[in-house]
Amino acid sequence: MSQDGKTPIRGNLPLVNQYFTQSSDCHSNFFDDISSSSDSSAFMRSVVGSNSSSDLFHAASNSNSVNTTVSVTTEKQEDCKNGIGKGIDIAGKEEPVVCRIFSSQENITKQIDGGSGRDFFDMIGSHHGHSIPGASVKSSPSLPVDFSLGISSGPTSLIQAPEFNPGNVFEDPFLSGKGTNGECERRRDAWIPSEQTRRTLIAAATAIPGTYFPERELLTMPGVILEEDMVDNVQQVVTHFLGEAEASQRKVLIMNDVTQDERGLRDLIQAECYRAAVNLTGQLLTIYGQGAGRTGHTSKHTVHSIQLWFTRIALLVKLQAFSLAEAEASVWWDCDRPDLYYQFYPELYGGRLGTLIPFQFRLLLAVLPSFCDKHQEALDRLHLILAVIRKMLRNLDNGRSEDGSQLELTPQDRVESKKLWKQREARVLHAIVNVALLQKDYWLAVDVLQLLCEKETLLSQKRSLYSVLGRVLLQLGDVMGAEKNFQMAQSLKKTQTGTLTGHTADLQELVDRGLMAVSQHAFQDAYDAFHKASLLEPANIMVQNNMSVCQLYLGRLKQALSILCETVKTHVDTALQENVLLNICTLFELESSHSNDNKLALLRLVNKHKGDAICISCLKLQM
User: Is the pTM above the cut of 0.85?
Assistant: First the structure.
């Protein structure tokens, strides 16, 4: 009911979207996320007419949602050597991990990583380890779009990088490297510096060691802006509403509870204590002379210090502290200063060439402005990256190395380099689609998706792209165009399997059917499709959310509420996320004006099971 007491009606459908508005402090608008999404379209969309959409239900991802659109994953050197690469998984079975914690010394790695010998490991959780949205609960590779007619069609960003989850330990999920470890490092770190940076690097390399000092404006001089430690807001809210006794039962890690190193940082992220992890990154960056108050002061960069910054900014995006993330990232954005290349530090890295900046960090910095409503700036940055990548591919085609030098590459190394950079080119195009959706420039998203469909050769990924394209067209109100793309995705499934199972609907196909039914206001048919999908994946939070929305549209409020409450009860680790809690509390308010007791029951669950990262305002408690 609106503020004037009248119930708005459009056609024969009640406009319930006014009940599903998001509190301003619950969801700040990407990764940084990564995403998040931070996406300002954290709401799910409800198409009431064929060409109109309005906010309805907050998106339910498959884990604690960060609404991030960018995928920040990391790469470990041994993956390159062992050829661990899986190609593009459009929406991944789990959402991407936002950062990586790192270790370069083999003995430390073995202690931390159970002797696996990994050089790097991703973290931001897994839902036993508490991951970024989607971890722990499988979501169909076909559920990547954040839109969908009041129904969640999957994670909140349009296209997720392959397996942006804690299980992934590569910086670049598209890398299927072959060759020597040194060649894989060279390929991964290749980049073309600007002309000014190139001249500076040449001057530094030809000068007598210790005698060359570049001008200050040519250097990257980062520093922590946040001077006070982040605090656990959940503890304060629990104390206020439930008293000291209940608050004393809260067990969360703080910075001083863990070792003051990368291992402690990993422990905090695993425990979903992201605020404490941000505090620890600030402490560790102080060691490098880049802590609080050091912005504008010169300091050396190392692989570790840059990984700390990558982790810190990704965590801030995960926490939806976008303005702070953008402020601390402002000195990094072009990643083109000479002190961000290995050759600037011959005493540390010998003759190693290339950029110190991981590709995913570069991508994160490019999309970051879109979470502060600076969409065109983000698109400009992404197109700059795309231009460099395409120049590198032309260099490889012309018999040169990526940066245009005459470095000799074996035929196999050249093939692998082209493969890597074509995959990274696709990754940038994915990011452009995500930003276009945030900007509501759906035609740009459609154009880029069609380009990706033409380029993609892997049938499973091509199928996912067609499904994504269909969902974007639904958002535009082009039902016939959407149905055509869904049919194309279905035909690719049959071609891919080549067996009788190709004629059996899987999760992706059932969700597509449900979305089509919603667009035609056939909510019972939509519910039936989502229900069949839930039988295939009972723990899929997105599907459960969609079933609840359909029941609401059918006028069955109690059934809608029952579905979400049972989901939280059965899958407490994965379903106890902001978007689901916001939806449940909204339904509580629709059901009764005396909803506070039910909200406090949810607060007790949050107090018991969640770390310090959750935005408690999703419970809609009145302080």
Answer: no
